Queue: 2 jobs
Job 1
Amino acid sequence: DQQVKQNSPSLSVQEGRISILNCDYTNSMFDYFLWYKKYPAEGPTFLISISSIKDKNEDGRFTVFLNKSAKHLSLHIVPSQPGDSAVYFCAASGYGGATNKLIFGTGTLLAVQP
Amino acid sequence: DAGITQSPRHKVTETGTPVTLRCHQTENHRYMYWYRQDPGHGLRLIHYSYGVKDTDKGEVSDGYSVSRSKTEDFLLTLESATSSQTSVYFCAISEDGQNQPQHFGDGTRLSIL
């Protein structure tokens, strides 16, 4: 059973517009959430994280929002750039006290059109 | 970029043969991890290490063993490779295990025929 779900396999956005990537989780014990970006033939690169005690975290063009009651998080990229085209994975940890074990979603392929 | 090197980067081998993948880090981080990435599954944790000679199982550990004799090296072994272990394998490191990002190597593409 997938504990972390990314229901949109792909997303296409125009350059300069906002990209919104979504992630849902099933286990309320998760207390730390991360977003990674992955280019082909490379490893995932850490983008941004958020603790469950917060509902928003910003880093430059990237903002992560956490809605604990809905068990939902989202990544906003503003403005989107062609170099943002990649697969984005959300991940969660903290279930059962396992603070170091990341559970990943299946990824969303973002295409930013020039 | 975190100093993580995976070797080999690509390998093709036959069913039943032993395979060892190596992860080498220059960051002196305590935690090291092995993941596999498969279509429709994202990344799944195979094994991890929390110190020299200290390892534990992850989500998909059957058919895999690991060893860590030095802080900088974490080995993943498939004792008798099967076609279901064809995958892309990623190593990751983190300074400690307390809710912090893990940083990944560039992966090993393993094909088992």
Job 2
Amino acid sequence: QQNVQQSPESLIVPEGARTSLNCTFSDSASQYFWWYRQHSGKAPKALMSIFSNGEKEEGRFTIHLNKASLHFSLHIRDSQPSDSALYLCAVNTGANTGKLTFGHGTILRVHP
Amino acid sequence: EAAVTQSPRNKVAVTGGKVTLSCNQTNNHNNMYWYRQDTGHGLRLIHYSYGAGSTEKGDIPDGYKASRPSQENFSLILELATPSQTSVYFCASGPGQGGDTQYFGPGTRLLVL
């Protein structure tokens, strides 16, 4: 069964800092990797995804995936107070079922 | 943007009572999912469905049933609610392939007394 772990549990950074969030998974056959973001009291919303080894950048956000190390990460450049949220990583469970296994989340607070 | 709605948004139930949580999506997505979210546990999958008439057990199905009467609607049923089922419940929908985004509803906050 897929086991997804996130670190750190929580993080406080100043505005403008670079933030790094980590996620490890256990199933080496996993194919799809996601970061979801959830603002307080709101629904989770997909932020970014990556499906092959390497790096993907969208604006201030970058995902790195290393399948051999069973690890992927989210990096936020120039962190803003509006980035303060719960970040959830997710990995597909079972080929092409659409099912995801989520990590427990990292709470990020960006202070002005 | 995909639209998923849930009702009720807040619910107080008594131990041993029956609770039904409803979810509706207007995106014609094949797959629908029910999760619960508790502090320190992220999102845990309870039941999911591949289409009308289908329900599958997720990772924590005990104490829950699900019903998918149509493409648009997916219900979560607690036949005998217990205080341990106090949580926030999220419904999500997605096209159904492994690389597809899941779109979440606003959540239902359930308190079982």
